[in-house]
Design goal:
Length: about 550
């Protein structure tokens, strides 16, 4: 048994000081497909037996294969957990958390497993993954008071499908990875995409939460804290829910959430434009955002477009299935336009802007389209076939095959959100870092690009992206569909290339903090501590000390 391991019946050692660096956090990532041995499981047999009694043997995984899978995110791994547990109810999660707390074993929450910022990676070997995917019921759809209460392991696909039957949706209705991503993950890490151009990010839609604290306490916050009332409104006195949103799971495990509802808009149009420079495209996105014209507005550079937007063109059957979905969603005219245009034309577009416009009336959509066209053309935009957003809406949530590049390359993004006034300046800074590493990146076959997304009428998201040939992660065997995985090329490990990508990401993350940019999906990678004023950081450490005095909830998240 390692020096850090504790027998369930032994006296626990003194907990680490809250806010101090977590031992082992600075460790470099493990080579792809490999894991650290972790702790001696025999020393934790008593706890594992207790968890099995609470959850059932099928919901406690301590075999080597499972431990290796839960050790990795979509970019790397640190320590190997001693087990993964999959509770099926809030009550069982509470009991399991209490048992781990008594044994001084850390808990690390995990949703759909799409994190690329160390969000659910283990910084201590004596810790357990809490896989929330089986706590996934939709508890109530209240059409009168316009809210939905859902268990946080529910996918955005399942939630959207259930609401669509009633002509409803949440204002923000999921990330592109919504086939696998869970509601709780988006509320822990925050996220944007569908609906974000007008309604903002995931956490802005939340009315109430039930959170499981490190000691098993079920804490109701927001509208869930109201005694004897319905969870229809968040604010009733001080907002105690705020610290538990976008917390990267540092303060607790989200069990249930109540989200706002809106009537699903009945009318939608799609537009696309080509631009010669990223500055022109960025200014057009900002103009559209400020006027509140698009529910989704995104921009790609040539590298990202060629890698993502046009991938799969050779798969005719897939395109035919997608075509029928477009016809069902948007009509036969849109379907025929895509059939003739395809997506190959985007290979000749250096910067492409794509947007969706929606409203409850046809006249409302047409007026927004008229304004959007005027703004885009005034800034140098040339009209393109609007295939991208039509396809996105026809088939919004896809299996997570895109956690690799189109030919099987490794893939990892980063991001920041800046005000519109700083968008071009931030893009200049990202481009400067790309140029700084250009020679060594070319040597290792590293391609970079970026995706731009607007957030409400206030935010401009920049997502730098890297693709490079490297050995596959073990998690691909489970996360990616077998029929897709077998088509992908495999590569030898390139530790030097991986380090170059890591260095670029670290340099950009530090630069984003220095420029006052906002980030989501903070996990354990972003320097959240350095982005806070001292008084704010000290208060957060005090809150952490109240809800998790022993430092057992996702150690290292938010740098706590």
């Amino acid at each position: 048994m390692s020096e850090d391991a504790q027998s369930p019946n032994s006296e626990p050692s003194a907990p680490p000081a809250v806010g101090n660096p977590v031992p082992g956090y600075a460790v470099e990532s493990v080579p792809p497909g490999e894991t650290k041995p972790g702790v001696d499981l025999a020393g934790h047999k008593g706890l594992l037996d207790q968890l099995t009694q609470i959850l059932g043997a099928e919901n406690v995984k301590s075999d080597d294969e499972s431990r290796a899978f839960f050790a990795e995110d979509t970019f790397r791994s640190f320590e190997t957990p001693l087990a993964a547990i999959s509770p099926t109810s809030t009550e069982d999660l509470s009991l399991a958390a209490a048992a781990c707390h008594d044994a001084r074993i850390a808990l690390v929450p995990r949703g759909g497993g799409m994190s690329y910022t160390d969000g659910y990676l283990h910084t201590k070997p004596d810790s357990i993954t809490v896989d929330t995917q089986k706590i996934n019921r939709i508890l109530e759809i209240n059409e009168d008071d316009m809210y939905v209460t859902v268990e946080c392991g529910c996918t955005w696909t399942d939630l959207n499908d259930a609401l669509k039957e009633k002509g409803l949706r949440t204002p923000y209705w999921g990330p592109l990875s919504g086939f696998q991503s869970r509601v709780g993950g988006a509320l822990s890490q925050n996220s944007v995409f569908f609906g974000s151009g007008f309604y903002g990010s995931a956490v802005e839609q939340v009315l109430g939460l039930d959170v499981i604290l490190a000691d098993g306490t079920v804490l109701p916050v927001g509208s869930h804290a109201v005694a004897g009332g319905l969870p229809f409104m968040k604010h009733y006195g001080p907002d105690l829910m705020g610290p538990f949103l976008a917390d990267a799971g540092a303060l607790g495990v989200k069990a249930t959430a109540t989200l706002r509802l809106i009537r699903r808009p009945e009318h939608r149009r799609h537009l696309a434009y080509a631009f010669d420079t990223y500055a022109d495209m960025a200014n057009a996105l900002s103009s559209l955002s400020r006027e509140g014209l698009a529910t989704e507005a995104m921009g790609f550079d040539k590298n990202q477009q060629s890698a993502r937007v046009t991938e799969g063109e050779s798969n005719f059957l897939k395109d035919v299935r997608t075509l029928f979905k477009v016809i069902k969603e948007s009509g036969i005219l849109d379907g025929l336009q895509i059939a003739f245009a395809g997506r190959r034309y985007l290979k000749d577009v250096f910067y492409g802007l794509h947007l969706s416009v929606e409203d409850h009336t046809k006249g409302g959509v047409e007026e927004k389209v008229k304004q959007a066209k005027r703004l885009a053309r005034a800034l140098g935009g040339r009209p393109l076939p609007a295939s991208v957003t039509k396809i996105c809406h026809a088939e919004p949530f896809l299996p997570p095959d895109s956690i690799v590049g189109p030919s099987g390359e490794r893939w990892v993004p980063l991001h920041c959100i800046v005000p519109h006034s700083k968008a071009v300046e931030a893009l200049d800074a990202v481009t400067a870092v790309y140029k700084k590493y250009a020679a060594v990146a070319e040597k290792h076959g590293i391609r970079n690009g970026f995706l731009l997304v607007t957030v409400g009428n206030y935010g401009f998201l920049i997502e730098p992206v890297w693709f490079w040939p490297d050995a596959q992660l073990k998690m691909y065997e489970t996360a990616i569909r077998p029929e897709h995985l077998e088509k992908l090329q495999t590569y030898d490990a390139d530790e030097e290339g991986r380090t170059i990508v890591k260095n670029m990401r670290d340099e950009l993350a530090a630069m984003f903090a220095d420029m006052g940019a906002v980030s989501m999906q903070l996990g354990k990678m972003y320097r959240y501590d350095k982005s806070r004023k001292p008084e704010a950081w000290e208060m957060l450490k005090k809150i952490k000390g109240v809800v998790d005095p022993n430092g057992l909830m996702n150690p290292g998240a938010l740098k706590l």
